[in-house]
Design brief:
Layout lengths: L1 H18 L50 H14 L18 H4 L2 H9 L1 H7 L1 H9 L12 H13 L2
Helix pairs in contact: 2-7, 4-5, 4-7, 5-6
Length: 161
């Protein structure tokens, strides 16, 4: 029995000594091991904030009034519901990105140019190209809106919270 206890004690002490210890003193060989790859978390194009990009198209400058023009927003909602809801849902990703909060991520000029000139934007604007890739290569259709209608849609987007 004493031999059994001695043997058990030696095993227990050996286990404690081999498992414990200071990791900072241990040095592992790096031979044959790959260096850890640092990966940056890439932000989806639809979530990226790019307020200085005005896009490619006819709109170079827009001044938005502090107050939302309710009549223009109502007209914009009508246009949006008629022309845009096949691909866009107001508050969630669908075939295209959701417009809710778009003016926190994009300049008004960029939004207008995307509405009026989607083909040119996808060809020349890096963000529009990234959005095309994010949304499975489904390009935004040119709905042939007038600048007035596109501006009304932009005003409607301002009402979406």
């Amino acid at each position: 029995m004493k031999k059994y206890l001695k043997l058990l004690s030696i095993i227990a002490i050996a286990t404690v000594l081999s498992c414990g210890g200071n990791d900072s003193k241990k040095q592992e060989s790096t031979y044959g091991k790959k260096a850890p790859v640092k990966t940056e978390k890439k932000v989806a194009a639809s979530e990226r904030i790019e307020l200085s990009n005005k896009g490619v198209g006819p709109i170079t400058s827009i001044t938005l009034d502090a107050e939302i023009n309710e009549d223009m927003a109502a007209h914009g909602m009508e246009v949006y519901n008629k022309m845009c809801t096949a691909c866009h849902k107001a508050d969630k990703k669908f075939i295209g990105p959701a417009p809710t909060g778009i003016l926190k991520r994009r300049s008004p000029e960029w939004v207008m140019n995307m509405i009026l000139n989607p083909e040119g934007m996808v060809k020349e604007d890096p963000l529009a190209k990234d959005l095309l890739m994010e949304f499975n290569g489904a390009p935004m259709a040119n709905q042939g809106l007038t600048e007035e209608d596109a501006r009304a849609v932009l005003e409607y987007f301002r009402t979406l919270k």
